[in-house]
Amino acid sequence: MYTAAAALYPDALASSVTLPMEILQAASQMASVGERGRAQARFLLTAPDTTPLRLASGIQLSPDIAFDQLPPLDLLILPAIWRNPLPTLKGASRWLAQLAAIAGQGTRICSVGTASCLLAEAGLLDGRPATTHWNYFDRFARRYPRVQLKTRHLITQSDNIYCVGSVNSIADLMVHIVEGWFGTRVARAVEQQFSPEIRRSFRAAAYQDSTRSSHHDETVIQAQQYLQDNLASGGRLEDLARQLDISPRTLSRRFRIATGYSTQQYLNSLRLATARDLLRRSNLSIAEICWQLGLQDVSYFARLFRQHHGVSPMRYREAARGKLFDPVAGAGRGRRP
């Protein structure tokens, strides 16, 4: 079972707590279908103590557990801060040191909006890329000159440290996390339910620090970048190996060790992510999307898309454009409230 938590403080925006909570709860329920109904994730609220906390919006939340009692976490969310973050930073001084300890355990920590200031205060963003709410770009840059502020990206990632610039972007990140935990079908179903608007995928929206990749094979990093830049022509292992001056057999072995995928599987995942964006954002025909992805066979593309997402490309486009929810196979259909 995966364990996620959200930190609470008086000026936290409730929506940046409840949206990730609901997305993860929905994913857990969908994933539990194949696990005899057993919950696959839990979401905790945490604060310095368990005294009920009334947020600036007037909503009262009750922490499940104190910071110093937290179990090992897979994800910790630092909710967006309403208006000036400085009062929150001052109030957080007694528990900021725990963030470094939690990060050191390998926990993914994600800040929303100006909660990136909490990560910066804890020293977790020194020398790393980060983003924050657009209205605080200048103040953030002045206060934290050692942070590599990325003003053109809504999401940044460096190792296990994530920053998203707004409450809306946390949905994109949560879908990305759900996909890693529960697979593509669950992620796409959650995406249709919670964020079917025309949006960008995590891969398209995020700035990822390749120097702090989850693996450190520079040749494989170059291969990943080449595939990203050459979706329409980068499919042959032999051609990729020639670009990197390495034998196809060695590249294949190292790529799988580093990423867990073959080069073709990785390329397909890039193509499918791009296809989803084009189906949402453009009026290109299915055949034209295939051409942009370097695929000549429309029926093969349709089979590949259905295999990974459970619906045809056209049905996916209709659902995204019409804000419909297509649950995983076997469940009924419903319209988003």
Descriptive terms for the model:
337 residues; Rossmann fold; Arc Repressor Mutant, subunit A; eight-stranded mixed sheet; 15 helices; 14% strand; disordered C terminus; DNA-binding transcription factor activity
Question: How would you describe this structure to a colleague?
Answer:
The protein has helices spanning 15-31, 86-91, 96-104, 116-121, 137-143, 167-182, 184-194, 202-205, 218-229, 237-244, 248-259, 263-281, 286-293, 298-309, 313-322; strands spanning 2-7, 41-47, 53-54, 60-61, 65-66, 75-78, 108-112, 129-130, 148-149, 155-158, 161-164, 206-208, 324-325, 334-335. It has 337 residues and is of the alpha/beta class. A hairpin with a 2-residue loop joins strand 10 and strand 11 (161-164). It has 2 domains: 2-207, Class I glutamine amidotransferase (GATase) domain (Rossmann fold); 216-325, Orthogonal Bundle (Arc Repressor Mutant, subunit A), CATH 1.10.10. Helices cover 47% and strands 14% of the residues. The strands form 4 sheets. The protein has an 8-stranded mixed β-sheet, with helices on both faces. Helix 1 (15-31) packs parallel to helix 6 and helix 12 (263-281) runs antiparallel to helix 13. It has 15 helices and 14 strands.
